[in-house]
Design a protein that fits this description.
heterodimer, A: about 110 residues, 11 strands, about 0% helix, about 55% strand, globular, B: about 110 residues, mainly beta, 7-stranded mixed sheet
Chain lengths: ~110, ~110
């Protein structure tokens, strides 16, 4: 049972345009959501997070939006840069889960120069 | 220097062999995790440890065992490796004193079981 779903395995975007990566979840207990970025031959690195008490969190070019009623979150990257080309994992956890995180399957973003 | 290190980085072994993957961290975190990554399946939790005396199974623990030798060290063992354990393995850490749920990952071990 995939509790965190990323339905788009890949995405291509032109440099300078907006990249939108989507994520859906099924477990209503999740109250904390994270995005990780992974380059080849490296481990995932934390990118940005959002608590369920918010609907938006922004950090520079990266913004995460949370729609709790739809159980959906998205990551916006504006403007996209070639260095953003990586696999992005959506992840979710809940306060009673002792920081145990459930990951999605990942979306491979390619930013074309 | 890397905060979370994994050894070896690559390993090729044969079916039935015992394999140990090691993870060390200098972050001072109390919690450590082992994940495997497979194409199309994302990261799946194998085992996690909240301190030296607290070890818990994750969603895919069958065929694996772990040892938390110290707060900074967490090793993963495959007692008798099989081909479907071929995957990329990641160790991660987190700190229970932090409000966020951020985990910090090592660079990974690519394991191939022939």
């Amino acid at each position: 049972d995939q509790q965190v779903k990323q339905n788009s395995p890949s995405l291509s975007v032109q440099e300078g345009r907006i990249s939108i990566l989507n994520c859906d979840y099924t477990n209503s207990m999740f109250d904390y959501f994270l995005w990780y970025k992974k380059y080849p031959a490296e481990g995932p690195t934390f990118l940005i997070s959002i608590s369920s008490i918010k609907d938006k969190n922004e950090d520079g070019r990266f913004t995460v939006f949370l729609n709790k009623s739809a159980k959906h979150l998205s990551l916006h990257i504006v403007p996209s840069q070639p260095g953003d080309s990586a696999v992005y994992f959506c992840a979710a956890s809940y306060s009673g889960g002792y920081q145990k995180v459930t990951f999605g399957t990942g979306t491979k973003l390619q930013v074309i120069p | 220097d890397a905060d979370v290190t994994q050894t070896p980085r690559n390993r090729i072994t044969k079916t039935g062999k015992r394999i140990m993957l090691e993870c060390s961290q200098t972050k001072g975190h109390d919690r450590m995790y082992w994940y495997r990554q497979d194409p199309g399946l994302g990261l799946r939790l194998i085992y996690y440890s909240f301190d030296v005396k607290d070890i818990n199974k994750g969603e895919i623990s069958d065929g694996y065992s772990v040892s938390r030798q110290a707060q900074a060290k967490f090793s993963l063992s495959l007692e008798s490796a099989i081909p479907n354990q071929t995957a990329l393995y990641f160790c991660a850490t987190s700190d229970s004193s932090l409000a966020g749920h951020e985990q910090f990952f090592g660079p990974g071990t690519r394991l191939t079981v022939l």
